[in-house]
Amino acid sequence: MPTEPNPSASNRPAADRGAVSAVVAAAPSRRQRILAYRLLLSLAIAVFIADQITKLWIIARLPLGSYGPGHQIEIIPGFFNLVHVGNTGAAWSLLTGKSFLLAIVAFATLLGIYFWRRALGLRDRLAQVAFGLLCGGIVGNLVDRIQHQHVVDFLDFHFGSYIYPTFNVADSGICVGVVLYLWHSLRTQPARK
Question: Which are the catalytic amino acids?
Answer without folding.
Answer: 153, 171
